[in-house]
Amino acid sequence: MRDRFWELPLDDLTQTEWEALCDGCGKCCLNKIEFEDTGEVAFTNVSCRLLDGESCRCSSYHNRHKFVPDCVVLTPKKLREIDWWLPATCAYRLRAHDKPLYDWHYLISGDRETVHQAGVSVRGWTVNELTVSEDDWEDHIIEDLS
Predict the structure, then answer these.
(1) End-to-end alpha-carbon separation of the chain, Å?
(2) Which Pfam families does UniProt cross-reference here (predicted)?
């Protein structure tokens, strides 16, 4: 990968660099509720069935569509359409708006644990969607995802 590739425009990244931009927080794997009457979107602490709550990574990333057909494949184009869907701390969202990565991002710190040490990941506070009925997701809405 190129030196400081994350500072390049997202459209210029290779697939490997694009994938490496992920900070490993796991927030994008939280289920969301869209309220039809207002169009508002609320984040929950209910995670995708494939999210490993300790590593905050997908347990079957390369085969995820086999288990979760509607899992979003994030691309620069898709990002422009749905960046509101990502948390404010997300490296993809930050770079899409020409903002720098946070110091806790592993590309800056050199350590994949700093996202967890900074308290920015979902480690330890999610519930798996297999254990919560979708009818009860409103009971799991979280206030702030920044």
Answers:
(1) 29
(2) CxxCxxCC
- Name beta bridge partners: 52: 57
Spell out where 1-138 has E strands: 30-34, 41-47, 51-52, 57-58, 127-128
Q: Strands 127-128 and 30-34, how do they pair?
A: unpaired
- Cα-based distances in Å from 14 to 45, 76, 121: 32, 11, 25
Query: Structure pTM?
Result: 0.89
pLDDT tens over the chain, length 146 residues: 899 999 999 999 999 999 999 999 999 999 999 888 988 888 999 999 999 999 999 999 999 999 999 999 999 999 988 877 888 999 999 999 999 999 999 999 999 999 999 999 999 999 999 999 999 999 999 976 65
Residue ranges with strand state E in 27-68: 30-34, 41-47, 51-52, 57-58
Contact 25, 120 (CB under 8 A): yes
Query: Residue 31 to residues 9, 50, 117, 122: CA-CA distances in angstroms?
Result: 29, 12, 23, 12
What the block records as the tokens of 106 is 């592993």
Q: Residue 124 phi/psi, 5° resolution?
A: 85, 0
Q: Cα separation of 146 and 40, whole Å?
A: 17
